[in-house]
Amino acid sequence: MKQIFTFLFFTLVFNSFSQSKKDNLTKVIKQRDSLQIELKLQSQIYQSTIDTLDQIISGLKNEIEKLESKLRSIEEVRMGEQIWMKYNLDVVTFRNGDTIPQAQSDEDWQNAGFNKQPAWCYYALDEGNGVEKRYGKLYNRYAVNDTRGLAPEGWHIAYDYEWKGLQDYLYTTDYFFESIFYSGETVNQETDEFSKKCLKIGFGGWRDVGCGALGENVYYWTQMTGEIDSNPRVYMEAREKKSGIYDYLRTYKDDLFIFNSTSWIMGHYVRCIKD
Prior knowledge:
This protein has helices at about 1-75, 105-115, 130-135, 140-145, 160-170, 190-195, 250; strands at about 75-80, 80-85, 120, 140, 155, 205, 210-215, 215-220, 230-235, 260, 270-275. The N and C termini lie far apart (about 120 Å). The protein folds into two domains: about 1-75; about 75-275, no CATH class. The chain has about 280 residues and is of the alpha+beta class. The protein has a three-stranded antiparallel β-sheet, with no helix packed on it. Strands 1-2 form a two-stranded antiparallel sheet. Strand 6 and strand 7 form a beta hairpin. Helix content is about 40%, strand content about 15%. The radius of gyration is 33 Å and the shape is elongated.
């Protein structure tokens, strides 16, 4: 009998202990689940905050870019009777405010051309590359000739004859070659006097399916005069490739600007002149 009571006693104690362990374990599990839920909620809140901040930062970057573009578009240089924009055109909207799509891949660029849609990009399609970005944006012919107007109010894309007028003016002054161009080799010329008269034409290359000729030459679209299959453009190359000196024009007096035309696949810079 004594053994039976002893067995029952230990059985009750064990069951009671086991139930207590189970209750504690259940409590711990509930606390863990509650903590996991809280952590998940906090993570979602933090991620939402990060996403919001990213959107704000992205928006601020876009606004800064637009402001910089507007500031660049109001800087001008007088060349004889002409008033030129000091920098290459660097806008992301047409005159009426409509957005010009950015080509962010070679495929984007080609698709825009095939579909006869306006597009722009930076050299090498690298928005974060400060060296190439400093030259401004490359536009396709459909952006240049869009009826909504690529040039800001009060300006127009320079015609062939206006580039020729600039060339004639340069030949009759002491501006010469180095006075309108800049590149890594002439950065030491960025004095106040040079900066005032420099047209900031850099050898920013061009693009078709890919990009090329950075630091060697540059092409600009010129204004079309009528419906034609190819778009007119003006071409300049780094004269140091020929002579090694910047007074090349003083000696040889050959054409500073070369004129021809090309197809829709190309991407070139744009320079505006005041109406």
